[in-house]
Amino acid sequence: MPQTSFSIDTLHQKVARIFLNAGLSPQQAQPVARVITAGERDGCKSHGVYRVDGCLRTLRAGKVQPLAQPALADDGGGVIRVDADGGFSPAAFELGAPVLVERAKTLGVAALVINNCTHFSALWPEIEVLTDAGLAAMAMCPSYSSVAPSGGNAALLGTNPFAFGWPRPDNPPYVFDFATSVVARGEIELHRQAGKPLPEGWAVDVEGNPTTDPEAALAGAMLPFGAHKGSAISTMIELLAGAMIGDLTSDEALAYLGTTSILPHHGELILAFSPERFSAGRPGDPFARADALIDAIVGQGARLPSQRRFAARKASVRDGIVLSEAEVALLDRLETAGAQDG
C-alpha cells in the first residue's frame, strides 16, 4: 500500500490547519495538534491522526468550545488549578505546566487540577513535559462509563488512564501510561474498523455476556485489567480525579454527553514530585540509585514500558512519520472540509 513520509513539523502544521479551518483558535488548535502528532511520531496509532475525526465530531456536537480561554488560578500553594473553559485539555495543561514545575521544585510536591475540559489524548505527553524538567510525575483522569466493575455486568467506570514518569538525566525517562480497562477504547474501535474479532476477556455485551464482537463490546462494556485489582485502581481514579477535584465522574460524564460517540468531558489530576527535595539529607543520588534499579531490570532481559515508543520516536526523527494512503486521504479531506464534514 502506498505510503507518505512527513517530517514531524510538517505533520503538526497539517493537523493544526485542520483544527484552525474547523474554527478552533490557535491557542486550542496548536496544542491539540502537538499531542496528535506526538502519537504518530511515537508509533501510537490509537492516539495519532485517528483522533482527529473524534475531535471534530465533538466540536460539531457542541460539546467542546473552539475558542475556549483556559484560566489559571494560583494562590501560591501546592494546588494549581486551570479551568479549561470547556476546551480541549492540552491548552489547559500547557498553561498550568510551567507553574506546576516551579511549585514542585520549590515545595517538593505540587498538583495541577484541570477542570471542565474535553480530554482525548494519552497522558504520556504531559508526563514527559515534567520528566524533562527533572520531576517525577503521575497523571490520571476519568472518562465516560464504558467499563464494568469487576463482578459487575454493566458500564459504570471509565477507561480511566493512569500514567507515571521518572526522569533519567542520561536516558529517556521511565514512563508508563495505561488504561485501567483491559485495553483503551480506541483499540476496540480499531478492531471494529478492521473487521477483526476481539481477544477473549476484553468485553461483555449489553446483557453482560462475554463477547469477541467489537460492535457488541462497544454497545456493552469493556472489562478492567487484572479483575478486582484494576477495578480498584479505576475506582481510585474516579475518586481522586473526579469527586476530589470537583469534576465529573465517568458516570456523570456519560450523562452529560448522552453518548460515547464523542469525546469525554471531565477533569484531570497531575502530580509532580522533586526527587532532590524528597531525598534531601539522605545518602546517595536518587537518580543514580533509580538507574541502577532500571538497569537491573533490563539486565534480566525485561522490556521497559515505552521502550518501543522511544524507538519509534528515534526513527521518526530520523526518517519522518509514515502515514498510509488512507490516512493521508483522510487528513486531506478533513483539512478541506473544515467543521462541516468529518
UniProtKB/TrEMBL annotation:
Name under which the protein is recorded: Ldh family oxidoreductase
Sorted alphabetically, which PANTHER family does this protein's record hold?
Answer: MALATE DEHYDROGENASE, OXIDOREDUCTASE-RELATED
- Native source species: Paracoccus onchidii
**Gene3D superfamilies named among the record's database cross-references:** 1.10.1530.10, Hypothetical oxidoreductase yiak, domain 2 (3.30.1370.60)
The protein's UniProt keywords, in alphabetical order, are: Oxidoreductase
Family per similarity comment: Belongs to the LDH2/MDH2 oxidoreductase family.
- One Pfam entry for this protein is Ldh_2
